[in-house]
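Methods: example folding runs. The two proteins below were folded one after another, and each record is reproduced exactly as written to the output file, sequence line first and structure-token line second.
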Amino acid sequence: MPRSRSPFRPHEHDVLFGVGGLLAGLLLYALDLRNSPAAFGLPGWLSLVALFVMSGAELLRRTAPQLGLTIATCALALDILSGTLVTTVLMFSDLVYAAVLYGSPQAARRIPRDCYLITALITVGTLVGFQDSAALLLGFATAMITIVPAWTGAIIRTHREAAQAARLEAERTALLAELDRREAVAAERARMARELHDMVAGHLSAIAIHSTAALSLGDPKATHEALGVIRENSVQGLAEMRRLIGLLRDASGDAEPTAVPTLDGLSTLLARAERIGADNGLSFALHDERGAGPARPDQARPDQARAAAPDAPRPT
């Protein structure tokens, strides 16, 4: 989250506005392009004071907009009394806009109402005081430098707040969707774990019962049947474990491939069975009755591999 700026550290764009307005106002003053003569015999150079004060208020348009508008109002009053410079009036309009856009929510609601009230008072007061319909032009000019920028700032602020609310709602929706997905994955994994436990426990229970029977009974036929049941339950339990472990790997997004049994481990499996069976007087032998067939791809010689796939590119 970005840190808020200090009022004594203006935004870069505000510095450009202030310096640009100051330079334009100095040019207009040098060319003696002022809208009206000074009132009450005030010296014309006071409009320069108002210009400098207004340019300084522009530096506060983002960091302290309400303070900047207060200073600008005083500077505008001084500018009107000492001969109006257009640049000073334009900078005041910009500060009204900035106070609505960047100010507090209370200021954003209050400033447009104040602009309506000030415009109405100036228009009615001028009409009553001078009894001239030209006062309507003064009211229109007042509305242009107060109501119009206040409206503009309020509209842009409303759109920004709506966009921010929509962005927050989208982030909240995405977060809820992610939480739902994680809960669904966790529930599915828990269901698979229960299923794995139930099936493997059933197979292991059957193996334990029939192995006990095979050890306690002296009937070779019953022992053979019990060993057959033990083998069947062992194979089924192993198959179920492999299936569910594969599903759990897919659900967790594990990129590591599952272990696939190959014939390369057959000799190791046979040696392990011989060691385990030696304690019980059992022996194991492997009888491969398969005919001579084509060699597996991993055992084929390079020249045989090229002969089987003539279109394959030759190694260089």
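Second run, written to the same file directly after the first:
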Amino acid sequence: GITVKMDGSGPTEGAIAAQFKSGAPTWDLVDVDPFSAITLGAQGMLEPIDYSIVDKNKMRPGFGWEHAASTYFFSYVIAYDSEKFGSQAPTGMADFFDVTKFPGKRSLYKWGVSSWEAALLADGIAPASLYPLDLKRAHDKIAAFKENVVAYWGGGAESQSVLLDGEASMAIVWSTRASLIEQDS
């Protein structure tokens, strides 16, 4: 019996902060990345989840935080032009950032999620030691690499087209989009 209005404009950190600062937010619930929810919650811009109402036992253990709950999972992978690299496929993030061994332009997600982790892995951080993220080190790595980035994609279709159109030889994309690229090519 509750009317729900969907706003597909996307609850970015900036949009949520703007609504909070306006004093008259129009969103009651947002589907936002946990990184953003944790950051905004720490600034008092999101209310804590009331776990006396929300059953934390129905969540994957470790994925119910004070201001965020992960409801689905996805991954970022390296998608690459197999014709360009042939049998010499990239095998990790160090290869993604190595334009000498793997020449060509790259594409990254326009938000920090995935790019931070990729940069730190390429810079030698062990997967088990990634978190908490060293954002300065990640930003430095990405800044030093920016001349090799042809596009910072913001949506799934864009991540596909930058590869299918040949603008980039490699991109870090959602695993589902990488599967579609493989089917389409």
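Comment on the second run: The longest strand covers residues 76-80.
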